[in-house]
Write a structure and sequence with these properties.
By secondary structure, this protein is mainly α. The protein is 72% helix and 0% strand. The radius of gyration is 20 Å and the shape is elongated.
Length: 211
């Protein structure tokens, strides 16, 4: 983007400029997760991010236009990992019945989003209300989740495990329920066992799609 400074291309210490830049970017990502996920986005300055990551502000602007772009990069990483984990878990249970397939997919989602409370806070609290652009990106990712849920339901319909009907609104409602329950878990200081969250969400999904 226009706000970035070009990174130097010289090698140093046996590592290429690209390798060193990738390491700096990853340090900034780790610092963003730690600070956004504990102190909060609004309370975190670029200077503190750089101090925590051990990089200069110049290095920061080589990677990100600002804090919001870093927050978005983390949010995308969370969702990409979670989408991949859910798809893998569901596919691994392809020969199982619907309750087991759903339980494995839900557990993959819960583990990815809530296995580390910092990710839960970032994904369900810190990305809300930051800017119209980030809200648009968040809704785009929610649409990907809706399509993922619909594709899993389509498989259940094809196996005659669920009635054949329009599940579009069901998918949107399930996304809201899942997000709010995991957020509730995070906001209460994780005093509810994640197994209980997984069981409740599995029951809710099955109740919504089976006869």
């Amino acid at each position: 983007m226009s706000g970035r400074n070009p990174a130097p291309k010289r090698g140093y210490g046996g590592r290429s400029a690209e390798e060193r830049r990738a390491e700096r970017r990853e340090r900034l990502m780790r610092a963003g997760l730690e600070l956004f996920g504990t102190r909060g986005y609004a309370a975190t300055s670029i200077e503190r991010l750089c101090t925590t990551a051990g990089v200069s502000t110049r290095n920061f602007y080589e990677e990100f236009d600002g804090r919001e772009e870093l927050l978005l990069a983390l949010f995308r990483r969370l969702n990409e990992r979670s989408l991949a984990a859910v798809a893998e878990a569901y596919a691994a249970a392809s020969d199982a019945d619907l309750p087991e397939r759903v339980e494995r997919a839900v557990r993959a989602f819960v583990t990815t989003h809530a296995g580390d409370p910092r990710w839960a806070r970032l994904g369900f609290v810190e990305v809300i209300g930051v800017s119209p652009d980030l809200e648009r990106r968040r809704l785009e990712l929610r649409e990907r989740w809706a399509q993922t849920i619909l594709s899993l339901i389509d498989q259940a319909v094809a196996r005659d495990e669920a009635p054949d009907r329009d599940y579009r609104l069901t998918a949107i409602a399930l996304i809201g329920a899942v997000n709010n329950l995991v957020h509730h878990w995070s906001a209460r200081g994780q005093d509810i066992p994640l197994d209980a969250i997984t069981t409740e969400l599995t029951h809710l999904i099955l109740s919504s799609v089976t006869r």
